[in-house]
Specification:
By secondary structure, the chain is mainly α. The protein is built from 5 helices and 3 strands, in the order H-E-H-H-E-E-H-H.
């Protein structure tokens, strides 16, 4: 489940790079477990790479040092389509299962 959340968070960033510390802070809001979180994060990155490679999309996940991002030119999703064209229409729901997505949802409401 966290691998899916990691991918969703990177999609939400719309190609912007995010370092490992920021990702950990967003995926795990509880404090005091930083070392465990970093170890788990490394496993999540490996799992995400393997999942993407399994569907022929291994080149989507990019990394520069400790910064991770998605090559949005290789992805097709409703969010990116809406940002480019305004379609499909935004109906008010955006990754509602993730609290960190509230900020993006608010920005989408303003558009």
């Amino acid at each position: 489940a966290k691998t899916k959340e990691l991918f969703a968070f990177l999609v939400d960033r719309n190609g912007a790079g995010v370092n490992a510390n920021e990702i950990c802070a967003r995926l795990w809001e509880e404090k005091g477990q930083e070392e465990k979180q970093r170890n788990y994060f490394r496993q999540l990155i490996l799992d995400l790479r393997q999942a993407l490679e399994a569907v022929g999309a291994g080149s989507v996940l990019k990394q520069t040092n400790y910064t991770y991002y998605l090559d949005t030119q290789q992805l097709d999703c409703d969010y990116y389509s809406y940002l480019k064209t305004g379609k499909p229409a935004f109906l008010g729901e955006y990754m509602s299962q993730y609290s960190w997505a509230d900020e993006t949802c608010g920005l989408l409401w303003r558009e």
